[in-house]
Amino acid sequence: MASFYKAGLWQVGKKGPPPIFQSIGIRQARCSELDQELRSLKTVQELMDLIGHGMQHFDAANVVIAIAELSKLQREDGLEEMRRHRAWPEFADRLQRSVPRLEPRGLSMVAYAVARLRWQDDLLLPALIEHAVLRIEDFGCTDVAKMAWSLAKLDIKDAARELWALLSKEAAKKCSEGRFIDISMIAWSFAKAGLAERVLFGQLATAALAVKEDLPPHTIANLAWAFAKGKCFNPPLFAALAKMSIAAVAEFDRQSVSNLLWAHATLDIVNEEVFAVFSDFTVKTGLWRQFSPQMASNLVWAYAKVGITDVPIFDAFAEYINERADDFDTQNISNCAWAYAIAERPDKAVFDTLTRCALGRLDRFRLDELCGMMWAYVRASVGDNKVAWSVLFEEAIVILVPKVDSLDSQTVSNLYWILATAAHLRGQPVPGARELFDSMLVLLLDMKVRLDSEGAAMTIWALWRVGRFLDAWTLYVRTLSDGRHPEHGKKGFVKSHAVDGRQKYYQCLLMESEHRGDTAKQVYIWKQMAADFYSRALRSACLNCAVMAYMKAGDREGAIEMLRQIARTRLGTAVTESLTRRLGLREEDIEPADIVDITIRRRPQQPSRFEDFHYKEAGVLETVLATATPGDAHSVHAAIEAVGLKEVWLKVAGGEKACVIDNVIHARRPKRILEYGTYVGYTCTRMALQIKQWGGHVTSMEMDPVNATIARNNIEMAGLSDYVTVQLGHSDDSIPIVLSNYGERSIDMVFMDQRGTKFHEDQKLLEKMNLLSEPAVLVADNVLKPGAPYHVWRIGSMPHYTTDIIDLREFGSAQVEDWMTVSWVRRQEGYAGDFQPQRELVALGREADRFRLRAMATSMRDLVGDPLDEFAARFTAEFVKLGCASTIFVQTAKEGQCGSISRLVRLRPGEVPPQWDGDDPKEFTQGGCWRSVIGGTPFLEQLLSEGRMTNGH
Ligand SMILES: C[S@@+](CC[C@H](N)C(=O)[O-])C[C@H]1O[C@@H](n2cnc3c(N)ncnc32)[C@H](O)[C@@H]1O
């Protein structure tokens, strides 16, 4: 029978809803009355009774309305109650027989009702699907939405492949005429069924943005959820949803709050306003108490994932967990542990409760949940929260050992990292870990499991950490060397900016082989690194480092052989010449090698991501090589400054920052300086140039082997290789090496230029390990931006520091205000101890880390403007409340045609530093022309010791 129902036509030509079924002529009046009656009934019993005695008068529309009404009245056991009624069998039969006569509206209504009732009927569902396929072109947007929703809800995918494809096509065609609820349902359904296609979702987003209705929160939240589930990030749509959600926050229910924030976190959308508004709402209204365990764990997970430690939320849910943890399933337990660990809110009570719930049932955890849980316990082991000592680890190992063959690559690397870190924290191996390590190593060496790049780095580090360096070495040589570096692996807001794992495993392998004095291994890695680079400058820089390794070991023959390789491959630079001269040879004395070393023959066809990641630093090296004079440190500094001032922002402590360091060196006259973060070797060579006059030496720690390579080349260019040691490795790993190399009380001055939120821990470790002389001076950079709140609190509140906070501007970006701190450290009360915890600092610390990540991804220069300034203002205000404010500022003036001069100026008590309103010195200052005025403004320590100030100032 030809249908007169065309969704589009109907909407244009007719009034009221489209018909439910194909009827010829006008419906009987009784049928219309029955519609009304069916719609007026309030219980399943009444409805079934009416169906029972009125069914002989029903037309197909009545049948449809009856099932629709029944679905609206459904309760938990709704379907069962209907089925028990004597009229049910006949009604079910009628319903099924009506399907061929139904119009799209009727088909979608029945499907929708059936899905709401969760009624999996072997006859009805196939019939509905078959007729929907036949009539699909006549489906309107609402019909598409309902039909898709029903299929998704009933989890029908394979049995309706054709229908899903047709629905997708119709949705794309018709969504622009749909209501928001339809669009939201369509998106939800396709996402739920795992069928989210980019094109369809793009069209849905455009359609949703065009809708001008006031929307109920659950529709907004469902749409956000669907886009997140389908991994479709549409920035304009999310900006609009955020705006609508904030406006309607008061009407959000618990499910919608949870879905909305979960969606943002899943797509790594760090909308601080949304997270702040919904935290405030959820906590203040007490809505959190109504959350289900699933919603609760999703919510804390979301805050942790985007890096927002909202203290009230974490406190509220800590209470929730303590009250409701018995209702948590394994995923909820694992997610909560993960969230509290990553948010740096390792609430002891939370972990105690989670441990109680998890112990004895670990065998029910999925492997990823189990690993996530153990990972969280390691991360959360700070202060008195000693959860890395939990027997949970032993219990987990017993479960894992027999399953080792089924572990995937991510689990293997996570387990290595977790158990090595737990052993480090406990000071002894975790019982059973050795056996697990051995069996996992077999999997890796047999290549049954292939690690991704980050996994390889974690595993190599872990093996080294537990004292199995040779196993780490074997793993590298057998599975990763000679260009077999694996893909990056994990993605996400944090991960996408993360450096390649190669950076970490080269670092670890080089650090240990240098520490052992194993030249063969060092040279092996330098050659491998050289062969990974496309850039000639970087290839040369690595081979120069190999020459330096031989020279350090006193292996003249080896050094000359390497120089011959460099000559043969024509990779020599001014640094190579300098090394040749240091060996007492001339360039013409070096005969090119007969054959090229097999390792360095390899060259990639293009730069890798790893290499691209270092484009700025490689550019600095090239500029130094092109413009500086070997042996002239000033010319090297001028070249680096020129890049930072005229080309790209460089994270070096030049300009006003250099003025502070120069003055500290003048005041303390240190013999040994320890720097955290060498980068391209700018500050370490500046400092070395000054302290070499009194026989001083700089040791600079650098975790990035590429930066370390570039720095060693720049240091050689500056003629300062005898005065600066670049200690490869992450400071956590290399501090013990520094101690064993130089001994206790050997460090007079420390310059911290690493991650600001770690300064306080690093400083405490230096004190605990007795590395500092008496008194030592500690200088820290980037304290305000991206920010080091715990550090400011440590040096501001503990009695063994005498501190100045110095207000100044970022080098090469005068509009960015920053703080440096200068503290004299003495063995007095508080030394090596902990500060009083300040809850407010946690959120500031997390925010600082988010800015740091963004600065890594772009540059500090791009991070000017509102968000960062607001953060800095909040930061400053918080510290003024706590009694910490700037005491000195740096004043800079133009000097001559192309130079600048900076000096320190002490602020009077309560005086605020002046705002920057002049020209940015980068506009007129040439590299090498920024001078510091030294002396004249004493630091607080000197004022106190000269009696010009008292401790109360
Ligand atoms: C801001 S830059 C250092 C700039 C340098 N101090 C200067 O002023 O010329 C930071 C450097 O520290 C390194 N780094 C960060 N955290 C580290 C850590 N914990 N241990 C060793 N190096 C670290 C980074 O790889 C980066 O090269």
UniProtKB/TrEMBL annotation:
<protein>
    <recommendedName>
        <fullName>catechol O-methyltransferase</fullName>
        <ecNumber>2.1.1.6</ecNumber>
    </recommendedName>
</protein>
<dbReference type="Pfam" id="PF01596">
    <property type="entry name" value="Methyltransf_3"/>
</dbReference>
<comment type="similarity">
    <text>Belongs to the class I-like SAM-binding methyltransferase superfamily. Cation-dependent O-methyltransferase family.</text>
</comment>
<keyword id="KW-0949">S-adenosyl-L-methionine</keyword>
<dbReference type="InterPro" id="IPR058917">
    <property type="entry name" value="RESC6_dom"/>
</dbReference>
<keyword id="KW-0808">Transferase</keyword>
<dbReference type="GO" id="GO:0032259">
    <property type="term" value="P:methylation"/>
</dbReference>
<dbReference type="Pfam" id="PF26188">
    <property type="entry name" value="RESC6"/>
</dbReference>
<dbReference type="InterPro" id="IPR029063">
    <property type="entry name" value="SAM-dependent_MTases_sf"/>
</dbReference>
<dbReference type="GO" id="GO:0016206">
    <property type="term" value="F:catechol O-methyltransferase activity"/>
</dbReference>
<dbReference type="GO" id="GO:0006584">
    <property type="term" value="P:catecholamine metabolic process"/>
</dbReference>
<dbReference type="InterPro" id="IPR002935">
    <property type="entry name" value="SAM_O-MeTrfase"/>
</dbReference>
<keyword id="KW-0128">Catecholamine metabolism</keyword>
<feature type="domain" description="RNA-editing substrate-binding complex 6 protein">
    <location>
        <begin position="103"/>
        <end position="341"/>
    </location>
</feature>
<keyword id="KW-0489">Methyltransferase</keyword>
